[in-house]
């Protein structure tokens, strides 16, 4: 076949096979050419190793991962296009149930699509391709926005290597809010409560963001001098009745100080 070129400049070099990135990357992900017990800890093998072992609720049994196997596809690419099928390999994993009498067997999980030599998948008879895109490097990015009145609003993004993005931002009312992926914004203190039991109480959060100290009250005069206008950390409770006299986070007024001195508090 004669190739005619209509460009003004001569060809400098051969055009590389642009689909090699997808084809070679997917082959490395599957490692289909290696025995199930000799695969490297990457790709599909790394995902399965990360998932197992799976323990029972009482920790008496555990399901251990041994390896996986990719079988031969049942249909050819042309048959899949005609019959509206997915061109894929039967996917089985070998697991071992650790118990007094261990059991090891293959478990069929379904089919994994196969990438053809042209760099496309065949899904339900239609060709699908992978489009490469840029990926933000994992880490923490900070930004500063100056709004009306020269007010500075700080924000940051926590970008993991895999998983949900977290955005932290200070609002115009000086409230620290958080967003996880495309969720609505909510208070950062709510996120801290969910992440750790150590910050599940109001008292713990107040101590986290503010410097606190313990003060012993002996007289109203001394209390008015040292505590008037300050905020208390935890609830003040009457030791005799268990009644909450003043809730944590409240501003101490003269009336509150009198209540404290007159009560048998704890």
Written description of the protein model:
With 266 residues, the protein is of the alpha+beta class. The chain folds into three domains: 20-129, no CATH class; 139-200, Alpha-Beta Complex (Dna-directed Rna Polymerase Ii 140kd Polypeptide, Chain: B, domain 3); 220-262, no CATH class. Helices cover 23% and strands 29% of the residues. The protein contains seven helices and 13 strands. The strands form four sheets. A five-stranded antiparallel β-sheet has the order 7-8-9-10-11. The protein has a four-stranded antiparallel β-sheet with strand order 1-2-3-4. It is elongated and about 105 Å long. The termini are far apart.
Terminal residue distance = 96 Å
- What proportion of the residues form beta strands (DSSP E)? 25-35%
Catalogue the unreliable spans: none
Query: Nearest-angstrom radius of gyration?
Result: 32 Å
Summarize the structure.
It contains seven helices and 13 strands. It has 266 residues and is α+β, with helices and mostly antiparallel strands.
Features:
4-stranded antiparallel β-sheet; alpha+beta; 13 strands; elongated; 3 domains; single chain
């Amino acid at each position: 076949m004669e190739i005619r070129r209509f460009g003004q400049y001569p060809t400098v070099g051969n055009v590389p096979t642009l689909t090699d990135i997808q084809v070679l990357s997917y082959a490395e992900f599957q490692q289909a050419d290696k025995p199930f017990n000799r695969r490297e800890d990457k790709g599909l093998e790394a995902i399965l190793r990360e998932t197992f072992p799976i323990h029972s609720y009482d920790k008496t049994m555990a399901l251990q991962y041994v390896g996986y196997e990719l079988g031969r596809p049942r249909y050819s690419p042309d048959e899949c296009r005609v019959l509206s099928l997915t061109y894929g390999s039967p996917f089985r994993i070998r697991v071992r149930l650790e118990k007094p009498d261990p059991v090891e067997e293959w478990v069929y999980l379904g089919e994994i699509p196969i990438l053809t030599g042209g760099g496309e998948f065949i899904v339900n008879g239609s060709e699908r391709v992978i489009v490469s895109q840029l990926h933000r490097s994992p880490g923490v990015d900070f930004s500063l926005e100056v709004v009306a009145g020269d007010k500075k609003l700080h924000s940051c993004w926590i970008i993991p290597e895999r998983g949900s993005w977290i955005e932290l931002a200070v609002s115009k009312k000086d409230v620290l809010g958080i967003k996880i992926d495309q969720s609505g914004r909510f208070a950062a203190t709510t996120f801290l409560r969910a992440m750790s039991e150590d910050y599940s109480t109001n008292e713990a959060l107040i101590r986290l963001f503010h410097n606190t100290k313990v003060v012993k009250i002996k007289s109203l005069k001394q209390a008015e001098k040292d505590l008037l206008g300050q905020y208390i950390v935890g609830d003040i409770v009457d030791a005799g009745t268990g009644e909450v006299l003043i809730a944590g986070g409240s501003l101490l007024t003269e009336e509150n100080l009198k209540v404290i001195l007159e009560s048998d508090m704890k």
